[in-house]
Amino acid sequence: MRRARPADVAGISALVAEWAAEALLLPRSAAEVARAVEDYVVAVDGRGTVLACAALREYSPSLAELTSVAVSRAAHGRGLGRLVVHAVEALAAVRGHDTVFAHTLQPEFFAALGYEATDRAAYPEKRARPHTLCVRRALAGEPAALAAAA
Fold this sequence. Notes:
Elements: E1 2-3, H1 9-20, H2 30-35, E2 40-44, E3 50-58, E4 63-71, H3 80-94, E5 99-104, H4 107-111, E6 116-117, E7 133-138, H5 143-149
Parallel strand pairs: 4-5
Antiparallel strand pairs: 1-2, 2-3, 3-4, 5-7, 6-7
Helix pairs in contact: 3-5
């Protein structure tokens, strides 16, 4: 588990593309990933192959969006999704965000991580995704632990 590096761009974009092809994630081109590589965290195997990823997108000074949460099918069941989400939360805390939100088709996954359903009206840019559920988690009260994890 670590922050993404430029060498991870192809692996991240391929992993996201796999799920985007099934309309489960929004697509991200390699160029988009490269421009935001400092906002990604990855779980890699011993050869450096990207097994899981997630990204942080600033929405406002205190609010950040968790995006591109993906785990390779071969790595499902190892807890890597949970780890990349926690790593992005830690990154958000270090950058001064109080709250993280996500739009998801997997609300049960996020509920297990302490996220709660919230009204999408709070995120006007996201109204075009009526098929997703909006979830959010306050990071307040946990900054020291989250920052230590970053």
